[in-house]
Design goal:
single chain, mainly beta, outer membrane lipoprotein receptor (LolB), chain A, 15-stranded mixed β-sheet, globular
Length: 294
Amino acid sequence: MKRGWRRKILLTVSAAACGCGGKVVTKTTQVPAARRPVAQEATREELLDRYNAFAHKLQTINATLELKPTAGSQYTGVIQEYHEVKAFLLAARPYNIRMIGQVPVVGKTVFDMASDAQTFEVSIPSKNKFLTGSVGLERPSSKPIENLRPQHLLDAVLWPEVHKEEIVLMEEFNNENARYYVLTVLRGGYTSEILRKIWFDREDLRVVRLDSYGAKGALLSDAQYGNWQPVAPGNAMEYPMQISIERPHDEYRLDLTINKIAINETLTPEQFRLEPPAGAEIVHLGENSGEKQP
């Protein structure tokens, strides 16, 4: 008899501990209405119109910013963080971009780089070298920071429009932090591949992430955006003042903090022209030329 009662007691305790036969709530937290996140509704067409309207309106950028590069990854076993530099950025559709990096306070130029539809140039005064090559050049360096190219910044700061003939898929993505709409733009026909993913935060329907893909689904660029602010007092147009650009295959990341920005100013071709400094060694980089990265 005693053994039978003991067994019943143990089963009862076990059931209570496991929540069997009823709900066991340890804590209930009421989230105030003002702090509850909002998940707005939108259609694929509304999101495309919103994205394309911004991309079409944005024609040129003239910005002053702080730039912090990080090279390497956990996969290489080495992660190198570099000092922040003050940078000046010029960008104009369709393909022109230039960035000058300087040491803060003293104003000494660390790099000066530019690119257009065909070529890129990078001037490195400390090495007295001037690099030039095709924008399509893909040759990873043993030093990841040397994979930095001006054209890598272009799509991240001047978003490419989505064309009517492109196939676009829509999905929802939720996690513990936020809810998102994701538009996936495809390239090709029968053998379609991912070209781009555009992430919208459903709280305000702003773009918070832009992923660009290469052949075989390779993630080329993961750009994330935050701190959207008006570009000027009284101007309704906004721009993200925090941009993080990660290039997984090139193994570097750029964190940009924009301090000052002007949108759609007239920029001249001369502002994007980069000439080799006097006495600099000119290095022509080519996939089959056999030169080594400096």
